Each structure stands twice: as structure tokens, then as C-alpha cells.
């Protein structure tokens, strides 16, 4: 008999993501971690604008839908007033990096005791697949119809590496939902990030590589393969901080 796979109790109805989207997997991982850490009744989600907004659609948890890109600032305020609550921003690459780079960077710079989950699908998914700061060189999007030209736009940003190398965060990692093994590792990263916040160690961030088959013009399996074959070499998976999130 296969082991029973219980949907976390925090998820009370199906969510409205496109077929093959990675958001649903990531939300489930976050909820599993929250339940396992006994934090599901203690969490507040400042949510970004984008497909990440759909986190609010099926979840039994306190959440606040922030202005586009501003979740880092909103989370700072919530956490400083309610230090005992677990505060997790849930944002896309366009939200956290393109429009929200000031708020995301400043919260990391200040080492705010919050957890930032960024879903990197290399485009603005919700609005029809425009270029974001993480769009790959040569990638065709609705605003780079001939492929991204980095001599004009700058190069795809590796934000977790920036935070880990220039600031003093508690925990920074990058995961992916492109294989069962990667999903399992990503859950471990999310759990460590949340544990770092519980331990009051400071800023934690997990970026997750996630497929967007509809805007990439691919079938779901091809989109997973694109992550494994083309994206991970530029966006390496793993932990970028030496410690953090260990139960002491
Ligand atoms: C101030 C403002 N500018 C632009 C938009 C349009 N908009 C909505 S979602 C989005 C991008 C979302 O991209 P991302 O954060 O990567 O999330 P995804 O949908 O890819 O998960 C944009 C530009 C907006 N809602 N508000
Ligand atoms: Mg995106």
C-alpha cells in the first residue's frame, strides 16, 4: 500500500493555477512545513501581485495582499509589531525583483527576521509572460519577441547570491520543483528558512525555480526539462549560507 499523502489542512480548496504550473507544489511544501513546525495557526503571509496572489485563494491562513513589489516592506512592519508571528512573503520574480527590488533588497540589507519565498519562473506569468529580471539571455517573451538582448536589458539577476555574498542573512537557498528529488530538497530549504526565523536569526530567503508552461509555450514535462537542462546551470541549486535554521 502506498503511504497516505494527506493534503495539508491549511489548504481547503483547489487553487486556480494553469496546468503544469509550479506554484501549487511550492504552496503545498510551505504548508507541510508550517504544519510540521506547529506554525500553521501562527503565520501571516504578505503576498505579492502575480500568480503568487493565488496563494490567498485556497489557504486557511492570515494574509495580506500587498501593493506590487512591496511585500518586503509590509512584512517588515508586520514582523516588528508582531515578533511572535511567523511572517512569510510569497512573491514572484517580477514582484520581488523587477518592481520590488528596493523593498526586497532593503529588507535583506537590514536582516529583517522574515522569510521571503520567491517563485522564479523567468517571466511575469500572470500578465502574459513579459520579460522580468530573471528572464534568460535569448529567451523569447511577449516584450522580447526576438529574445532577450542583455546588451540592452542587463543580465538575469541571481538575487539569492547577491544577498548571501553582500549582506548578513541567516539563511539563503535556491530550490526547484523540477524533479521529485529537487522537490524534497526544496522542502528542506523552506523548513530551514522558517526555523531560522523561529530562532530569531534574521532574514531568510528561498528562491524556487518553477515552470510556467503556458507562457514558455511548452508542455508541462518540457517545461520541467527546461529547468533541469537550461536554467539550473545559470541558477544553481543549493544553500548559499553556511548555517541557519538548525534547531539549537
Ligand atoms: C503597480 C503595478 N504595475 C504592474 C502591474 C501588472 N502586473 C500584475 S502581476 C505582474 C507581474 C507578476 O510577475 P511575477 O511576480 O513574476 O509573478 P508570476 O505571475 O510570474 O508568478 C505585473 C507586472 C500591477 N498589478 N501593478
Ligand atoms: Mg514570475
TrEMBL record:
Q: Which domain of life is it from?
A: Bacteria
Can you provide one Gene Ontology molecular function annotated for this UniProt record? Answer: thiamine pyrophosphate binding
Chain ranges passing through the membrane? none
GO biological process, alphabetically ordered: cellular respiration
Question: Domain Thiamine pyrophosphate enzyme TPP-binding: where?
Answer: 58-208
Which Pfam family is one of those matched by this entry?
TPP_enzyme_C
Family matches, as InterPro entries? 2-oxoacid:Fd_oxidoreductase, THDP-binding, TPP_enzyme_TPP-bd
User: What UniProt keywords apply to this chain's record, in alphabetical order?
Assistant: Oxidoreductase
PANTHER family recorded: 2-OXOGLUTARATE OXIDOREDUCTASE SUBUNIT KORB-RELATED, SUBUNIT OF PYRUVATE:FLAVODOXIN OXIDOREDUCTASE
Name of the protein described by the UniProt record: 2-oxoglutarate ferredoxin oxidoreductase subunit beta
Amino acid at each position: 500500500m502506498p503511504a497516505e499523502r494527506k493534503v495539508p489542512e491549511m489548504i481547503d480548496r483547489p487553487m486556480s493555477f494553469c496546468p503544469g504550473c509550479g506554484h501549487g507544489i511550492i504552496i503545498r511544501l510551505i504548508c507541510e512545513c508550517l504544519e510540521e513546525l506547529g506554525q500553521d495557526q501562527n503565520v501571516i503571509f504578505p503576498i505579492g501581485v502575480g500568480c503568487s496572489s493565488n496563494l490567498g485563494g485556497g489557504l486557511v491562513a492570515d494574509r495580506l495582499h500587498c501593493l506590487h513589489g512591496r511585500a518586503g516592506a509590509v512584512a517588515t512592519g508586520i514582523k516588528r509589531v508582531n515578533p511572535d508571528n511567523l511572517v512569510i512573503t510569497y512573491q514572484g520574480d517580477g514582484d520581488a525583483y523587477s518592481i520590488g527590488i528596493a523593498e526586497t533588497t532593503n529588507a535583506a540589507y537590514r536582516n529583517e527576521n522574515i522569510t521571503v519565498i520567491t517563485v522564479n519562473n523567468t517571466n511575469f506569468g500572470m500578465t502574459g509572460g513579459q520579460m522580468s529580471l530573471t528572464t534568460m539571455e535569448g529567451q523569447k517573451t511577449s516584450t522580447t519577441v526576438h529574445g532577450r538582448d542583455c546588451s540592452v536589458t542587463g543580465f538575469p539577476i541571481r538575487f539569492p547570491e547577491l544577498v548571501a555574498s553582500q549582506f548578513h542573512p541567516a539563511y539563503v537557498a535556491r530550490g526547484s520543483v523540477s524533479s521529485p528529488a529537487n522537490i524534497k530538497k526544496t522542502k528542506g530549504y523552506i523548513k530551514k528558512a522558517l526555523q531560522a526565523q523561529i530562532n530569531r536569526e534574521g532574514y531568510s530567503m528561498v528562491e524556487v525555480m518553477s515552470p510556467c508552461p503556458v507562457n514558455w509555450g511548452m508542455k508541462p514535462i518540457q517545461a520541467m526539462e527546461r529547468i533541469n537542462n537550461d536554467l539550473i546551470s545559470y541558477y544553481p541549486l543549493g544553500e548559499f549560507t553556511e548555517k541557519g535554521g538548525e534547531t539549537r
